């Protein structure tokens, strides 16, 4: 037997109206309500409850300027029990708002979408005929019957339906009339080649549906998008035929009256056909743009070469059509595949002719499309090639387009190949004027970013310093403690020549900022600027003493005492001041050399640190006082021997030159160094011999009997130092850079006539850093 427990329960529901509002596009009220459902137990207690929100749309299509709002409000309350009678005044107010609200056809949207930049101009598809009757939604079936007759009747029937479709209030009724939509789709599919007017009208009808996201399904159902792609492709081919025929007529027509009149007539006919065709292209492309909101649909368009078709339309002169096409391309350009397609069909070349132009929207959209494309290095090069650089520079004076133009210029300025080309425009003077006009206001990220990049070029830096340029920059940077502006100054200071000597007046100001109390980022830029000042007449000993910089430099050499970038800049600074004999001696006495060795141990995997620390040793072995400390009191030579065969070519070269000087002044270390060089090169020789023996048919390259006594092969592989070790420091002072300010990663020295320079620093070119993007 089985016992059955029966539980007697009851159900209770309560509906509450929360808020009232008007529909964003339709003549309707929206009621937001809440349903609370409860299951009560046998004793009346609640066992289970749930709440759910919903909304009800109350359409008031009969509302017109002459409607009695009070009576209509009472009727709404009678028919909608969700709204309590106490809200009658609110309903009246909302109805009055609907009554007075102005709506424009086609622009209203039931679902909020991204604001379109353009809309189709008021099309005139009824040329050659007068429509004396006003379309009525109740006569749609009559209009559909016209679609089964000849082309003129089809044009008339579709035109009347278009009148209805342009009013958003009629779209839902038309949506439910499958016979009408099916007939329109059939006529378009069968007859679009026979009549441009007919195709334009029917596509415009479906365009009205495409303006609302929830109607995209019906447009896709009838495959209107695919038809529009075919229409656009066909019309572009037909346009090519027209142009070729016109070209032949113009070429063959002699200069006489009758044939000249025929030629003018052909030209007028071409212009008429062109106007109708561009009207068709405009509405077709706008429909496709609406459908492209769905990325899956956009991908289908891409597979059918939508990019190629749009770029071909860029040849046209109709500004409204161009605005639409550029808007479409701009939307597509955010995807890599589409951007690559644009690169293959000469998009930049065709956009270049649109800059500048008098149409403000077209100019702004073209710039924004170019901005999207400028993230690609190849397309940036193409922009420079087609002459966009001076055009973009000219737009810096246009307040409405300055920001976009500045961003494109920033992307171009990233590439070292193009920095020097800014010299041949008036970009630098304009940028300096903008910086001056900012006064104490914050500088826009785009402006200072371009200036930072351009300052890395020597000729640009010279232009920036003309007049009182450097004075203005230094004054503002020091007053506002502007790190980005000081970064620009730091870039200027790295160039040899007349600009570097201009910094002598500001050495004290910069040194005064090297304090523990200052922000680390600010100190980094000031210290980096000082470290660039390899000026012969500068008394670094006086600077270090007056501003008490030695304790700060020594303290910052401790691993972990600051960010790596700041510690590296401290090392570079020490290398710069070590060119001075007295200054190098003062640093050696302070115990900086052991601190550098400790830092070398900690940062041995970082090539930049290793190279700059070794360069400090290289500078110090020139001076008697510091040379003895390095050779006799530290293990620096041993570390240099270990680094002599480093995989980094620049480190090897700096080490070799430093060790050669050490070998000259210390016999014991000289023997060790020669022994290590012999061992290394001997191993290389043996490896080469073994590899040659593997191929017995090939003779040896060298005769060992003749070369055994050529010790310079082993001791002077770098080709700089003679094998007998007879070299003086003066020899290295005579090494000069042969290529001005061009620094190659493999060059060891970047020297002036007064003193040997330091190895090329990776400042600004570190591979782990991203370009300076600060704008959204």
TrEMBL record:
<dbReference type="InterPro" id="IPR008658">
    <property type="entry name" value="KAP3"/>
</dbReference>
<dbReference type="GO" id="GO:0007018">
    <property type="term" value="P:microtubule-based movement"/>
</dbReference>
<dbReference type="GO" id="GO:0005930">
    <property type="term" value="C:axoneme"/>
</dbReference>
<dbReference type="InterPro" id="IPR016024">
    <property type="entry name" value="ARM-type_fold"/>
</dbReference>
<dbReference type="InterPro" id="IPR011989">
    <property type="entry name" value="ARM-like"/>
</dbReference>
<dbReference type="GO" id="GO:0044782">
    <property type="term" value="P:cilium organization"/>
</dbReference>
<dbReference type="GO" id="GO:0019894">
    <property type="term" value="F:kinesin binding"/>
</dbReference>
<dbReference type="Pfam" id="PF05804">
    <property type="entry name" value="KAP"/>
</dbReference>
<protein>
    <recommendedName>
        <fullName>Kinesin-associated protein 3b</fullName>
    </recommendedName>
</protein>
<feature type="repeat" description="ARM">
    <location>
        <begin position="591"/>
        <end position="631"/>
    </location>
</feature>
<dbReference type="InterPro" id="IPR000225">
    <property type="entry name" value="Armadillo"/>
</dbReference>
<dbReference type="GO" id="GO:0016939">
    <property type="term" value="C:kinesin II complex"/>
</dbReference>
<dbReference type="GO" id="GO:0035869">
    <property type="term" value="C:ciliary transition zone"/>
</dbReference>
């Amino acid at each position: 037997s089985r016992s059955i427990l029966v539980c007697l329960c009851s159900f209770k529901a309560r509906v509450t109206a929360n808020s009232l509002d008007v529909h964003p596009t339709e003549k309707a009220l929206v009621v937001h309500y809440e349903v609370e459902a409860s299951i009560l137990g046998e004793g009346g207690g609640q066992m289970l409850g749930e709440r759910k929100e919903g909304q009800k749309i109350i359409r008031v299509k009969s509302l017109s300027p002459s409607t009695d709002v009070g009576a209509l409000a009472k009727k709404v309350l009678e028919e909608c029990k969700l709204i309590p009678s106490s809200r009658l005044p609110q309903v009246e107010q909302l109805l009055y708002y609907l009554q007075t609200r102005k709506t424009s056809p086609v622009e209203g949207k039931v679902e909020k979408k991204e604001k379109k930049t353009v809309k189709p101009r008021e099309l005139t598809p009824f040329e050659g005929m007068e429509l004396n009757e006003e379309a009525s939604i109740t006569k749609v079936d009559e209009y559909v019957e016209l679609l089964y007759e000849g082309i003129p009747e089809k044009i008339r029937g579709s035109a009347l339906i278009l009148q209805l479709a342009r009013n958003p209030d009629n779209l839902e009724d038309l949506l439910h009339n499958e016979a009408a939509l099916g007939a329109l789709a059939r006529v378009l599919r069968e007859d679009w080649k026979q009549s441009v007017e007919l195709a334009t009208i029917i596509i415009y009808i479906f365009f009205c549906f495409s303006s609302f996201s929830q109607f995209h399904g019906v447009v896709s159902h009838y495959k209107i998008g695919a038809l529009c792609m075919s229409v656009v492709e066909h019309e572009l081919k037909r346009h090519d035929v027209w142009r070729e025929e016109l070209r032949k007529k113009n070429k063959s027509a002699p200069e006489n009256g009758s044939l000249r009149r025929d030629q003018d007539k052909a030209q007028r006919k071409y212009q008429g056909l062109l106007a109708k065709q561009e009207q068709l292209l405009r509405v077709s492309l706008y429909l496709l743009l609406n459908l492209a909101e769905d990325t899956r649909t956009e991908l289908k368009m891409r597979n059918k070469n939508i990019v190629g078709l749009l770029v071909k339309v860029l040849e046209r002169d109709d500004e409204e059509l161009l605005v639409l096409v550029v808007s479409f391309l701009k939307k597509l350009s955010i995807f890599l595949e589409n951007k690559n397609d644009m690169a293959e069909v000469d998009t930049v070349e065709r956009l270049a002719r649109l800059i500048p132009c008098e149409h403000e929207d077209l100019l702004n959209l073209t710039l924004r499309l170019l901005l999207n494309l400028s993230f690609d290095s190849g397309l940036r090069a193409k922009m420079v090639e087609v002459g966009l650089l001076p055009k973009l520079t000219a737009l810096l004076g246009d307040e409405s387009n300055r920001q976009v133009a500045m961003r494109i210029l920033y992307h171009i300025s990233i590439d070292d190949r193009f920095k020097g080309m800014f010299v041949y425009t008036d970009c630098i003077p304009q940028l300096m004027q903008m910086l001056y006009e900012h006064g104490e206001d914050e500088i826009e990220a785009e402006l200072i970013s371009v200036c930072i990049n351009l300052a890395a070029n020597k000729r640009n830096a010279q232009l920036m310093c003309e007049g009182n340029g450097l004075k203005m920059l230094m004054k503002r940077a020091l007053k506002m403690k502007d790190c980005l502006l000081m970064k620009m100054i730091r870039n200027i200071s790295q160039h040899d020549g007349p600009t570097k000597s201009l910094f002598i007046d500001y050495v004290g100001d910069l040194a005064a900022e090297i304090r523990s109390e200052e922000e680390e980022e600010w100190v980094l830029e000031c210290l980096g600027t000082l470290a660039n000042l390899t000026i012969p007449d500068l008394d670094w000993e006086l600077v270090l003493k007056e501003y008490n910089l030695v304790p700060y430099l020594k303290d910052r050499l401790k691993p972990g005492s600051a960010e790596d970038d700041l510690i590296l800049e401290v090392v570079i600074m020490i290398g710069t001041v070590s060119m001075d004999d007295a200054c190098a001696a003062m640093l050696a006495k302070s115990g900086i050399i052991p601190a550098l060795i400790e830092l070398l141990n900690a940062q041995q995997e970082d090539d930049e640190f290793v190279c700059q620390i070794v360069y400090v040793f290289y500078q110090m072995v020139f001076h008697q006082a510091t040379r003895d400390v390095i050779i006799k009191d530290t293990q620096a030579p041993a570390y240099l021997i270990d680094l002599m065969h480093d995989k980094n070519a620049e480190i090897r070269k700096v080490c070799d030159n430093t060790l050669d000087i050490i070998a000259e002044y210390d016999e014991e270390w000289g023997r060790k160094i020669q022994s290590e060089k012999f061992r290394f090169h001997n191993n290389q020789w043996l490896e080469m011999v073994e590899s040659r023996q593997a191929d017995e048919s090939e003779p040896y390259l060298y005769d060992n009997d003749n070369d055994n006594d050529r010790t310079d092969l082993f001791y002077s592989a770098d080709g700089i130092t003679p094998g007998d070790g007879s070299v003086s420091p003066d020899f290295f002072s005579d090494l000069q850079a042969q290529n001005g300010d061009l620094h190659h990663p493999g060059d060891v020295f970047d020297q002036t006539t007064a003193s040997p320079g330091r190895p090329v620093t990776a400042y600004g070119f570190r591979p782990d850093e991203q370009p300076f993007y600060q704008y959204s």
